[in-house]
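Interim report to the steering committee. The following record documents the input for Uracil-DNA glycosylase (109 residues).
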Amino acid sequence: MTRWADQGVLLANTALTTVEGEMKAHSSLWAEFTEAWVRALGNDGTPRVWVLWGGDAKAFAPLIGEGNVIVSSAHPSPLSARRGFFGSKPFSKVNEALAKLGRDPIAWV
């Protein structure tokens, strides 16, 4: 993933820690922090492409300002990938959005 980061890709979950085997165990601990950084980056005047996977991430969409592009689908986890992630083509949609913003595409492989 270093290659992605070198191209400007930031990967983050809505909660940055959890307890093994417990879904969303620390979500409430991270909610304020996550809202703050999404709001800050989503409204700093730099157009970005945001990929929101799953309901928790999609809930942050209203915090992302105009001029940004949002690509969203079901989460790619084994529990929900068949509910809309497969076939959603998020990587090609990101590159299409980047092209519209006049930015270079990401080399995903």
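The chain has a mean pLDDT of 96. The committee is asked to note this result when reviewing the revised timeline.
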